[in-house]
Amino acid sequence: MALSDSVTTCLSPPAHYVICKLGFEKKDNYDINNILSENGDVCWQAVTEHVCYLESDQSVDYIKSIQSLGPVCESVNLHFKSLTKEQFVIQYALWFRWTNCTELFLDVFDVLQYTQTTEVALGLMKLTSCLERALGDVYLLIGKDCPFLLRDLLASEQLAVVFGQAVMNILRVFIGSPYGLNLRNVLWHGFASPQEIPAKYCAMLLFLTAGLGQLLQTYLLQTKCVLVHRPYVIFISLEELNVFPGKYLTISKFLLCYIYYYLDHETLSIAEELVKLSSFVLKTMLPFWMAALKAFKQSRYADCVILLLPQLEVGLRLLFTTTNNCPNRLLTAEVKFLSKVNYDLMLAKCLDNEEVNQLPAVLGEPAMASEFLWDFLNHQEGPRIRDRLSHGEINLEAFPREVANQIVAFAITLLCRFSDGDMFAFKEHMVIKTLMNCASCYRSRFHPISRLKKQVLECMKSIHLWPELPTVPEERVQMIKGLEGNAEASTLILMISEMLSQLQQYMPQNCCRSDDPINSVLTERLLIELCDTHICTLYSPRPVLEILVVLRKISTQCHRVSEQVIASTALRYKQWMNKTLRSRQRHNYLRMLNSIKFLSPVLRLILVLITLELVNVHLVCKKNPFDYQQYLKFMKSVLQYTENLVTYTSPEKNKWDETMELTNKALIKIRKISDRKLMLMQLAT
């Protein structure tokens, strides 16, 4: 029997007891009127009386509190079941407005009427994420930097000021504390199956959220404050997330519609069969998978991804514990360690006992699954889908299909990869083979290395616009006294040529013409070829990451210089043609035109050097670690040059003579370390 078949729960015995049994031990019939007044106000004093405290330090006794609150939660659940939707809206809708998600909370009421376990779990996940976001907005009425973690937010003095400490302790019994029910983490990390989440806890959180709205209204009236909701995160550049492509369908001569044909009804039907047969899926979690695929079919893309992400974590945790021979870690060790084995640990290079983590190797070369997961979930410049969904940062109604498409397609590849032998027909299906091919070719897009590649290419595109800029005739530039026969410019060109000659052996062949070595080498085509070199982004050592920070800053400054040159050139040309420049301004304009002819190859050379660093320094740090602090110091001096260049070329300064002088000094310094540079490259190769 496969392990995925034999596992009946991912909750350890203590965690299972707390969540599934503790709140059912008291059989009292609790009267809802004890905590709900005739006018519909939550009687918070009566609710908070059920929170118990330890005699030793007066901290919350979570075990006794859960036990005491069990009948209260059941009473609330029965109360909601007794209401029609219209009655519920009249009595409670107003008190959900502070969350900025009123409709979501009304939908949770609908779910509770039917007690479908999967839908209750989904409703609870959405409720907790939106509640956290709303509490963060309240926090900002008083505080400045909202805590990232829910447990820190609930423990903050700021929320205690608004709602009262006793009220916050109630919330911590249900969410936020690893010693309580911890419902948010249990669900978002995939430890609980649908049938293990009592619906009455979802009902109680719905009730408490309305009560918080009542308390908040009182606070706002007293303080004259206005609650401001932070804007949602919006996914931009969705094309960067397009790993598993669709195709363009021509609707008319002027309209193209992007169709994700790989995830059509037929593909999703295959996925449903794969879910039932794949060893990647725990059978107790099967309802979550089926509900996720159903949600995608119904265009409920946020619901689909919310359901699917924890299940990907469960499947990967199953592989992690199997390949690293630690099956006990499939379960929650204790209630307080519910998120002990999460994505960060599963994708780490080494385990906490310093042994090598075997999961990335099992996921396949070239580490496509690991790089995909890091890109979509962890990297700071990536979409960080799980974080943003679970913390309520995304408008669920506007969740993009493009993102859901990628997550579902990636899940299908894992289902297929970790499946039993009787799956040949599915694996040979054309669409499945296409998805598998896309996955096997995946390269990180949001690692700092990948972002730097993108930066240098964008910067080079900008610099390549310079020759197309409007300019006065060349003979007018040469007529200006002091510009002809510029010795500094000649020296500059000579130094660039010499450095290119030294670097030639590390560049693609046939990229240099003898008649124009500079312009034939320092091209966008060369950078594209260099950037196409694959570099494994997993587990980049600290020296590489530190150097990358500096290289990215250098690239950013070069781009700023280019944008300033473009803007200044266009403006001055317009003023020249309109004859609005004074004599000194005309002279300075012509000096600028002369300077940028030589500044262009310098900036392009720096971009080429940066790109070469990506391959060579990375390899050197791995194969033959060196004293990178000295090397880092040099790169920081290049950064200083580019920062000064930004200042001198700004519209406010326009110091073009100083720009040429600064550039010559910088090139001399770069040339001095060229021997060192070549030595590093030789070590790398």
Automatic annotation (TrEMBL):
Transmembrane segments: none annotated. Residues 131-211 form the DUF4209 domain. The lineage of its organism: Eukaryota, Metazoa, Chordata, Craniata, Vertebrata. It comes from Chunga burmeisteri. This is EMARD protein. InterPro entries: DUF4209, ERMARD.
